[in-house]
Amino acid sequence: MTAPGGRCLSHAASRGFYDRLGAWQDVQWYENRALGRLVAAGDFGAARAVCELGCGTGRLAARLLGGVLPPGAVYVAVDPSRTMARLAGGKLAAFGGRALVARTDGTVALPVADGAADRFVCAYVLDLLSEADVRAALAEARRVLAPGGLACLCALTHGTGPLSRGVTAVWGRLNRIRPVWTGGCRPLALAPLLDPAAWEVRLREVIVAWGVPSEVVIAARRP
Q: Which of 55, 77, 136, 211 lies at a CB distance of 3.0 to 4.6 Å from 167, suitable for a disulfide?
């Protein structure tokens, strides 16, 4: 597994950052195209149970529950930030018992039984985590997914052209100087983090919006 580069915030510092500024996450317009691709490629219309690590304000969960997932599908969303969990709870309240929002202690453990989910979602979270936490998150994804279930991942990644390479070079430099300036996130290559013995990568795309590159990966859990 390739180690993530750059510097990440501690669990406490990350919670504090998103408690203060979490309400602004919905205006991160560069994420929209990549999230759209994630939704289109994740075959969510066939999903019955979804869990999301780092749900943020609940924007993606509300989008999926609001018409992409089948009517009976259930959704478990977790986030360590008090602000994020509150905002997500408000967004998802209309879905009643189909949606559970829980606040974590900063670890990647999910309140989901082994093999109980058929989709694991993690969007713009792995690029915040330490190498140990990335390993733990992918292990947790494998634990909660049934064989053949899909991990639907999206993260800030390295640039592919002159503009996006320049953007991520500056981003990475700021992160190395003071990670709080970037909210702890830094460019990450997702696909190499997935052990081929454990995952079948079915889609990998880099999508650049406003000069910011995002990597979308859909990977099936091997038996």
A: 211
- The DSSP 8-state label assigned to residue 152 in this structure reads E
Dist. CA 142–CA 75, nearest whole Å: 17
Could you count the other beta carbons within 10 Å of the beta carbon of residue 18? 25
- Strands 199-209 and 117-123, sheet pairing: unpaired
The C-alpha atoms of residue 207 and residue 70 are separated, in whole angstroms, by 27
| d(C-alpha 193, C-alpha 78), whole Å | 22
Q: Which residues are CB-neighbours of 220 under 8 A, at least 6 positions away?
A: 148, 149, 150, 151, 199, 200, 202
> What pTM, to 2 d.p., does this model score?
0.89
pLDDT, tens digit (0-9, with 9 covering 90-100), for 164-220: 888 888 877 777 877 766 677 889 999 999 999 999 999 999 999 989 999 999 999
Backbone dihedral angles phi then psi of residue 207, each to the nearest 5 degrees: -115, 125
Domain parsing of the chain, residue ranges:
11-221
* Topology of the domain covering 11-221: Rossmann fold (3.40.50)
Burial readout 129-167 (b: 16 or more C-beta within 10 A, e: otherwise): bbeebbbebbebbbbbbeeebbbbbbbbbbbeeeebeeb
Please answer whether residues 80 and 15 qualify as being in contact, where contact means their C-beta atoms are separated by less than 8 angstroms: yes
